[in-house]
Write a structure and sequence with these properties.
single chain, 4 helices, DUF6609
């Protein structure tokens, strides 16, 4: 299967987002189960982007919103008072 230039860029960015989701699994022993859930949700976001062919802007925004929500959850459950 050959991709044109636009499809190639699209797939490259989606694969980067999926790779970021995969790398979160390495942090489960340190950060707990929540980071594993973040990894799953991030991977699903990338897979939905591949299957539904959403615009990259929409996928980037949803990825950022997902990570901000999980960041707020981490602040809430953190044993350190900020």
């Amino acid at each position: 299967m050959y991709l044109n230039a636009i499809q190639s860029v699209y797939m490259t960015w989606i694969m980067v987002l999926i790779a970021v989701g995969l790398h979160f699994f390495a942090f489960i022993p340190v950060h707990g189960k929540i980071i594993g859930i973040l990894g799953i949700v991030t991977i699903l976001n990338g897979l939905i982007g591949i299957l539904a062919h959403f615009p990259l802007d929409m996928i980037f925004v949803s990825d950022g919103v997902i990570k901000m929500i999980f960041g707020l959850i981490y602040l809430k459950v953190s044993p350190i008072n900020f």
